[in-house]
Write a structure and sequence with these properties.
There is one protein chain. The chain is of the alpha/beta class. The protein has two domains: about 260 residues, Carbon-nitrogen hydrolase (Nitrilase/N-carbamoyl-D-aminoacid amidohydrolase); about 200 residues, HUPs (Rossmann fold). Helix content is about 35%, strand content about 15%. The strands form four sheets. The protein has a six-stranded mixed beta sheet with strand order 5-4-3-2-1-14. A hairpin with a 2-residue loop joins strand 4 and strand 5.
Length: about 550
């Protein structure tokens, strides 16, 4: 049996556009015995509360029936979408895969395990399947599973999240191969776990596993594709390309397919995820270009490079906004970066605007020393100028803050946090440097060497550096990773030898910055725990 995996990049809510995408792909693999899309492919994943719109779900079924009619002359097709639950008890929908054959929607297969952790909240919408989902096709018995259904093997994970294991039930029901429709978001290093898990399942049950994953960016989530097939010995038989659309056909009888080359280094994975996520966010939101402030620092330099690779340098505008505290070297570094990337730039001095603020606030501020207030004013002036350009030119403003800064609130709300997409808000500062060095090592120098060598600074006062306010980034990022992603406690951090005052200050900063993060632009998720849809901390809290 030949099974084709359609690794596509759907747009959430674009029912007809997604149907056309599926149809084009299905026609390209017409020689397969069965073609399979990713999870909820007709709707785009994640549809979130669009699922609460009854009309949206009904329209998706009208589009599905048209798709079945259009592909009547082709082999059967499994398409992911939401299905209405006819029962009066339970959630209103099923997360399903519709089986199209000879112009008809012949039947559906339902998802069993509904994740409610991290970015997932499927129990909000869906009712689980009540029995194993089996498809008999051409004398083959195929087990149909959807995403989370394969992520509960007791031997691989040791501790299971759910009482039910759909894979065990499918095998017990006689499945000779298991197909999984997925929309599994990218995080750095995750593909290694996916493949190890799938290989273990295939070897354990001695049957092939076919995994088709969505690709592309939707809001804060990026999907890396890398659909794959394992034979009954647990050997990798096929892998689709990462971070781009691809179609692969696996001949299970002959054991033939193709394994796309890939680069699993963290820098390569994160870079490709950020480029893809930026490209799709801008285009799927209906824009053609972006702008950002160029400070001559490492963060804005990396974001500019990502934008240029994602959209083309002709669609990126860099804005240099010097103040009396901006060094000549910073301006030269910003312009050198723009030249290296081929970006258009404009320069807007904020000096006179700063003076106007000083004049207007002289009375209310009389008798008070200058402090962070004046620094924040500078950031907000820049934010206002950038947003004005965004409005006038119709360009998305990219914010340039990194995860380390966002974690501890080292950013100005309504200032440098202004914008439509926070490209590197899930990238720690130390990883920002790693990405910049990796990028330069690929060929020609893009990030100027001076940017990599100088001490990080916001240049909001003379001789300022980030380490005036924060621990060294190597220390800060280790504490933040252990606290945010590994959930280690203050006591565990102290047991590692970290200074108590420093640990308590960092954790307090993380807690106190929650109100800022709640108002931040969407950011692209690349780590296991990002400050996005999977981060659900209270703003008013005394716990840390």
């Amino acid at each position: 049996m030949k099974i084709a995996l359609l690794q596509l990049n759907p747009t959430v809510g674009d029912l007809q556009g997604n149907a056309d995408l599926i149809a084009r792909a299905a026609r390209q693999v017409a020689d397969a015995d069965l073609a399979v899309t990713s999870e909820l492919a007709l709707l785009g994943y994640p549809p979130r509360d669009l699922l609460l719109n009854v009309d949206f779900v009904e329209r998706s079924w009208a589009v599905l029936r048209d798709l079945a009619h259009d592909l009547a002359d082709l082999s059967p097709l499994l398409v992911g979408l939401a299905e209405r639950n006819p029962c009066e008890v339970g959630r209103p929908l099923f997360n399903s895969a519709a089986f199209l054959r000879k112009g008809r929607v012949e039947r559906t297969f339902k998802k069993t395990l509904l994740p409610t952790y991290d970015v997932f909240d499927e129990d909000r919408y869906f009712e689980p399947a009540a029995e194993p989902q089996i498809l008999e096709l051409d004398n083959e018995i195929l087990g149909i599973s959807i995403c989370e259904d394969i992520w509960n093997d007791r031997d691989f994970w040791k501790r299971r999240r759910y009482h039910t294991d759909p894979v065990e039930e499918l095998v017990a029901a006689g499945a000779g191969a298991i197909i999984n429709l997925s929309a599994s978001p990218f995080t750095a290093g995750k593909q290694r776990y996916r493949e190890a898990m799938l290989a273990g399942l295939a070897k354990k049950y001695r049957i092939p596993f076919l995994y088709v994953n969505q690709v592309g960016g939707n809001d804060d989530l990026v999907f890396d594709g890398r659909s794959c097939v394992f034979d009954g010995e647990g050997r990798l038989l096929a892998r689709a390309r990462g971070f781009e659309e691809d179609l692969i056909t696996a001949d299970l009888a002959a054991g033939k397919a193709a394994i796309a080359e890939d680069d699993f280094t963290i820098e390569s994975e994160i870079w490709r995820a950020l480029v893809l996520g930026t490209c799709d966010y801008v285009h799927k939101c209906g824009f053609s270009g972006v702008l950002l402030g160029l400070s001559g620092g490492i963060d804005s330099s990396l974001v500019a490079a990502i934008a240029a690779f994602a959209l083309g340098p002709e669609n990126v505008l860099g804005v240099v906004m010097p103040s009396p505290y901006t060094s000549r070297a910073s301006i030269e570094d910003a312009r050198a970066l723009a030249q290296n990337l081929g970006l258009k730039t404009i320069t807007l001095s904020i000096t006179d605007i700063m003076k106007s603020f000083d004049r207007e606030l002289a009375g209310p501020f009389r008798g008070r020393q200058k402090d962070v207030t004046e620094e924040n004013i500078q950031a907000r002036i820049r934010g206002n100028l950038l947003m004005a350009l965004s409005n006038k030119l119709g360009l998305v403003l990219l914010t340039t803050g990194n995860k380390s800064e966002l974690a501890v609130g080292y950013c100005t709300i309504y200032g440098d946090m202004s914008g439509g997409l926070a490209v590197i808000s899930d990238v720690p500062k130390t990883v920002v440097y790693r990405l910049a060095k990796w990028l330069n090592a690929r060929g020609r120098e893009i990030i100027p060497a001076a940017v990599l060598q100088k001490a990080p600074t916001a240049e909001l006062r003379f001789d300022q550096t980030d380490q005036d306010s924060l621990p060294p980034y190597e220390v800060l990022d280790d504490i933040l990773e252990r606290y945010i992603e590994l959930h280690q406690s203050k006591e565990e951090l102290l047991a590692l030898g970290y200074n108590r005052a420093m640990v308590e200050r960092v954790l307090c900063l993380v807690k106190n910055a929650e109100f800022k993060r709640r108002q931040a632009a969407p950011g692209l998720k690349v780590t296991d725990r990002a400050f996005g849809s999977g981060w659900r901390m209270p703003v008013a809290s005394r716990a840390w």
